[in-house]
Records
---
Amino acid sequence: MPLPVPLSQPFLPHGVARLALTCSALALGFAPGLVTAPAQAQSATPGFVEDVVVIGRRASAAERLNATGGATGLIEADDLPQSANLTISRALAFAPGVVVQDFFGGNDQPRIQIRGSGLQQNPVERGVLMLRNGLPVNRADGSYIVGFANPAEAQSIEIFRGHAANRLGATVLGGALNLISPTGRSAPGLRLKASAGDFGQIGTGASAGYVHDTIDALLRVDHTERDGSRTYNGSSRSAVGANFGVRLSDRVTVRAFASYADLGFDVAGPLTRALLDSGSRSVFTGPTVTPTGAVNPGPNVVRDQPRREATQFHAGVRATGVMDAHLIDVALGYAQTDDMFRFPISAGVRDTRGDDATVVGRYAYAPDPARAIPLFEGTLQWVTGTADRDYYLNLSGLRGAQFGRNRLKADTLSMNGGFNLPLGRTLTLSPSAAWSRATRDNQDRYAPSTRPTAAYSPANPGLALPFGAVPTVGSSYERTYEGWSPALGLTWRPDHRQTVFVSANQTFEPPTHDDLFATVNGTPNSSPGRPNPAAPNQAAAVFATPALKPQRATTVEMGWRGRAGAWTWDAVAYHAWVRNELLSLRDETGVSLGAVNAPHTRHLGLELGLSLRMTPDLTGRLAYTWQDFRFHDDPLRGDNHLAGTPPHWVQAGLDWRPGPGWLLQGGVRWVPEKTPIDNLNTLYSDPYAVFDLRAEREIRDGLVVFAEGLNLFDETYAASTLVVDQARADQAVFLPGDGRAFGAGVSLKF
């Protein structure tokens, strides 16, 4: 019987969404003798092979993905919504366990967190291993720019939650996302797309794929730009990419890819609750001075004009070979990243230019052709990189004097090995262990004896005060972290439709340079090292370099997935005991003050996906994530909730096909309970529900037009917030979600 439509994105343009109701997609089995059907090119899984390689007995996709214990997801290109504004938050909306909160509505820096890892960062630059075609987008220290994760250029997205990502070389609590590029084989011919919508949204894209005998090639380009729903809210992203594959023999393939992305966006910043509730689409102008003191703390966006501009060139080559029961996969990668971030005056302008190189080796051994998963699988990943980082004063949006110059070096080595031991016909025992070693070195190369400071009058924020200077204090450090991450899982498959698993595991996450190195002692009206704007020569530190410990967690999880009749489900529950959790602290403008270790925290959660085919033409979908993340006996915070964690995260949708070529979809994004903004739990973001509607019509084969309405009832709400340790009721911490918007577009395939 046909499989009911499982969960995928808020809008499903075509057919069945193959969201991972699965365990680890690492277990893609093979054996000698037969040829596969089309497979996922450039997957991150050790057992993966290209579709052109002779790999033996072919297990079905569901069989392979459901054969081992863990929590993952797979989203195909046809499952991504045909949208005028396809952001990463929309692409991942129906992935249970993945919480994506928009910041400014475009291709900027949404907060992505899986199981709470990195949720307190702003911008989020840690906690998830971001991959493109199995190679890290993250820099060598684990940081990443989320705007480079472009779902419009992906053929599919693999999702690994929790310890399942250890097998990819991840050193994070949360998990990993792998964006797989289309190839000439998966997307042959010419494909065009154009769209437009409210808030100045414009998008274009094109790809050309070629395949002939043993070779294939693909070239793609895309561009999006947007004025945004607020003042000073523009964004743009341009990208070009190509890949080339060749079958050297019936058992060996080689594939190379390269991409370049140019990202730019205005940082519109937060608002106070009063401005949010008023529906204001302005940007904040900083604290207000009254006779009794300053009120409404926050950044002066109008004066400081915070903005990010970043480019990245990313290239890799990957060879895969099969020798009887052995599969070997080797990949080399290189990334060059140039990142200019103009923060508010309290942090200044941060300019980072760096290079990173990656070596990845994967191996799988499958002596039994009757089993869908390898008996043994292993991964080695090594990333090394160097970056030059310069700091400048922000003088009313202009680059001022330099006050910092550093060279940041990082190496991260991770190795994982694991068995899938059959215990009879229905049980599999999966022991594994990962070992990681990370170095973080910072060389302070700033030569002058003083560091300059700048300030504006708090009573008249446009009036510059005299420049100042503070003695130079070195910011160099050398840190080394290493640790083991063992895991033990048991999987029971009573039949091919049901999978039950339980596991106990540990994870290890070292800090990034952004955790270890931060500007301090700035204010909304003064630069780092100047805590009092009126005191230009008062000595104060400019940088903080906390001696952080790595974050470690022990987690137990269990899951049950399957299908019966019209129902498809995926449920995972977990409980993690975290030691030395990395938490980011922020000043009144939302700028990082560096990180601290929380000695003991607890993460408890439920990840649930449901799909019900009510009639042949009507399907309902639900993705629900429950999170209870708390401190444990903290001297200051007690057992409070960790800030930034929505307790409930709900995505629901209906798909209706009223006739040939038609698709109508409705969806709701619902946060039914308030979300703490600070770790002391004194300030909260209100619940909200946002309704979307879209329609799609396939006029003829290959020609599709679509229209959509987002936030149909024009709900005023905070899509996200800053995350702070202790907030004030009048503080600017709320990031408004987009108002009602309409868009339309067309896609064409030749």
Note: The mean pLDDT is 87.
---
Amino acid sequence: MNRHQWWRDAVIYQVYVRSFLDSTGDGVGDLAGVRAGLPYLRKLGVDGIWLSPFYPSPQHDHGYDVADYRGVDPLFGDLDEFDALVTAARRLGIRVLLDIVPNHCSSEHPWFREALASPPGSPARARFHFADGRGPDGAEPPNNWHAMFGGPAWTRVTEADGRPGQWYLHMFTPEQPDWNWREPRVAAEFDRILRFWLDRGVDGFRIDVAAGLFKHPELPDSPDPEADARTRDSVNPLAWNQPEVHEVWRHWRAVCEEYADRDGRERLLVGEVSVPSAREHARYVRPDELHQAFFFDLLGAPWDPDAFRKVISEAMQDIAGTGSTVTWVLNNHDQVRTVTRYGEPATGGSGLGAARARAAALLMLALPGAAYIYQGEELGLPEVVDLPDDVLTDPIFHRTGSRARIRDGCRVPLPWSGQASPFGFTTGDGGAKPWLPQPEYFAEYATDRALADTRSFWHLYRDGLQLRSELPQLGEGTLRWLDTPPGVLAFVRGDGLVCAVNFGTAPTPAPVPGAPLLSSDGPCPPGVLPGATAAWWIADL
């Protein structure tokens, strides 16, 4: 069957549900709020949405500690509301992806509670990584691994007789025990979970920690045990990126293909894959594995034309060479927002960081492949860097005592309207304030103001998405680099769509004559590309 592979050049909008829109007045966003916001997303022009976890959870890591993979936490609604959301999205032509968390679950998951109540060596404990400790009386952890969110990766349990017992592995927090994917019952359970949601009409899955799942079978000591905690990345080669994980993705791909063969509608698997190189990344998107995997190198690149050109070239060579397409991102729920990352002090609405973020957005939307937009990115929201300690919820802060790389600042609820908090995010009928406080300056980023201002971030994204859908040169395909002056990066798409970025602060001659089709700095003088600006031209090259 010849199916339309919509995902190859799709633009997907990441919805962090608890911060998108609150319909109940409890201060937390919910699925009904997402449904109410669908017309806004349709107007923006995205092809689909990725929903952060909304499953029943104690919320120790905001839903990435899943207690029930087949339900909806009452905080966010219920299954009927989820079904209504999928129906409404389909009516508007918006696809729906779910965030699935196969590396770990909640310590409140029934299977883990059963494991705690069962003896060492039991089938219940085999679903997780339980091991005897080292040293006198097993008082030391089984190995020297550290958790990504700080502290040891092992926690000791108290056995049924009250004595200190075995240890269990958790590569994030003690409330998130890692599954043991060498146990066949774990794979079989996730097969059932996939089918449960596919039967409810979802269009695919964003896979959390997709390079995880399998650990080295002998659980040996690491030569650099604090690497994960130091980098906040999955770099321990004994805990991540084990070769057996590829068989899981081959099976999941086959499940998705089964559903696509049934109705001709492609389901997407996009993985959160943190690996050392684009070449290693490419192994996850071979034709029979994941359809796509997020390419984080552009997100992590410094504001420098040589750095951008290097990561783009490597991605096009190694990832697009597999037959997949690159999945570009500049922001997500775990990273400092671009406006701040590129130099904005996060206290107002203009500045160098904002100009660079606008330019980077236009560059990303011109690249071959797919793109993911994180909610608020289209508003130019900066990182909220001055949240007081007593409102921080990120487990990284509570486990390390450090604010370094904490993620609350990019998760502050969206401003929709008005001049004061809650900025239309919540009705306030429930008497609750937004779950994280919104700064006063969010007023100038509210969506009602953004839609009314044709020079806003929102209009830049909307115009870019509209042109991307209309121009045959954009979307899937290849690019060709152009020779440019120092500090400028330019490439041509198809038969003459040129994208150029001036990384400097001073104007420079444009790489092609004439006024641009679209510029991140608004109308530009013909033949000139201002500093920290990107622009698109149609040219005869």
Note: The longest strand covers residues 95-100.
---
Amino acid sequence: MTNKESLERHLRQLDNRGYKAYKDIQGKYDFSDFTLIIDYVQGDPFASPSKFRVRVPPNIAQLPREIFNSPSREIALRDYLTRQFDRAAHSISSKRGTGKSGLIAVTRFGQEVLERTSAFIISSHTSGIEDLGGVELRFAVGLPAGGRSILGRQAAEMLCEDIPQIVSKSLKYANLNAAECRRHVETVEDADWLRQQLAKNGLVAFVADGAILPRRSGVDDRPLLNNAVAFQSPPSLKVEFNCPNRGLISGMGIPAGITLIVGGGYHGKSTLLRAIELGVYNRIPGDGREFVVTNPAAVKIRAEDGRSVAGVDISPFINHLPQGRDTAQFYTENASGSTSQAANIVEALEVGRRKKEEGRGKKEEGRGKKEEAQSFVLERQLVAISEGDLVPVLLVDEDTAATNFMIRDRRMQELIAKDKEPITPFIDKVRLLYADYGVSTILVMGGSGDYFDVADTVISMENFQAYNVTEKAKKIAKKYSISRAAEGGENFGEITQRVPIPASLDPSRGRRDVRVKVRDVDELAFGTEDIDLGAVEQIVDSGQLRAIAAAMVYAKQQYMDGKRTFAEIIDLVMADIEAQGMDILSPFPEGDFAMFRRFELAAAINRLRSLSVVAK
């Protein structure tokens, strides 16, 4: 390891040389207060920036152990330090030369607090009055160039003057806002704690009183500042929790089962569902939705015209298609709204861990005793959670659903006989899903009162305020009986496991090296294919998509053997990440990975048009 002075001399000596000469600076440098590590040097000023790290030892960073002494706090602190480094870099670094010259930047981020590879806590191995932590921070640097010639003097200023200032300002606890830092970690810890209380209390989501749900715009996820209505729970749905840090908090608890969100247009139905949808993630303080938390296995389901579907058993919803097309192993390169929505549900159930066998006999025994059946489902959910199972919760908004998939009313049933209609609508399967598999559903429904008959809870949104109208909805359903025939049968149906064929996933474009590239949060180039993930709404960070791309390659290389099922493969990948971190997904340190869920990894693989599978 050389020191700062030798790096500075070397950079000045490189002045006006060809850009590729920058490769010589790769290595480690002692800056007294920290170590600078240059892992990768770009070969061109217009190429992807160089990859740098700084390691600040515990005796210099002096991060108090109490702010990272739990998994929640550590992830939150890493997120906070990343944001502080980004803020300092923007205030200190400047444009120098052509291309990306002068760039000092960390990964992009939004309102979510995610586990990222941008920052890590270095634990102290010494004991004393108070053990301390250090930090490793990973970032990108655009090494300065004039045309394709090195600007050595500017590079020396950038690496040897700017970076030390940024490190001092953002990674030394004495220079941070201690109160702000603690609020950040305590907010995340409380949100994680609340999320853990949901299943224990028979809930699938919680929306805190005082939450600000509306956003500034469709492209600005920050809270609406003017005329925003603070959320208040209906008294009959209000629950209270005593959080570890903030203490008593109250809000609306959404119980397990089938919940409808109804109301007039523009009154906040979809806004509430969107907040619930993103409640699988933690938020930064001041977001307004910090304490909107949702079951971690909640999955947004929508129609997705044009997506490919590979061997999915959609027969619980769709059967006897024209021309005798098989729906037990359904393939298409251009799915309709209904077939895509059916596939999206079944794919989520396929990779969500569940226990059906325990419930079947008990359900029959309790048929007609709704309270006993619901009690049993809740008991089974608690057992599943305790054993590490993830029972999916489905989130559906009629605005993005296929109408013919959601409902077939009495008049249409009379006109088109069931033996002429391949689709069994969701209304006839939603309660069977809950009874057979413990799968709850939250639906935004503004156009069909038929769902009153199957709902356990009905929440009406009026001017962004929630009202419990369950009893009123049930009285209306009884008063205006629709007499539609149930088409769902006695059981939901089997969830068939599929085995991916390894050769159908090729990230190499027929070459030796792997080729994957991410475009924002909705498109992934994988080998020769572009995977459209625009309808996978719970991918919220480009770092998640980069990690998903790497995880797809890792899954192909490590676990796809033509024998393991999707669920088994994803179990193994997620277990490896939990045990060893996201660094296992890349051959060298990456600073721009963000943690993803098993459902989004499965969604990306399932949308590969080359994918082939066999049934287990």
Note: Residues 178-200 form the longest helix (23 residues).
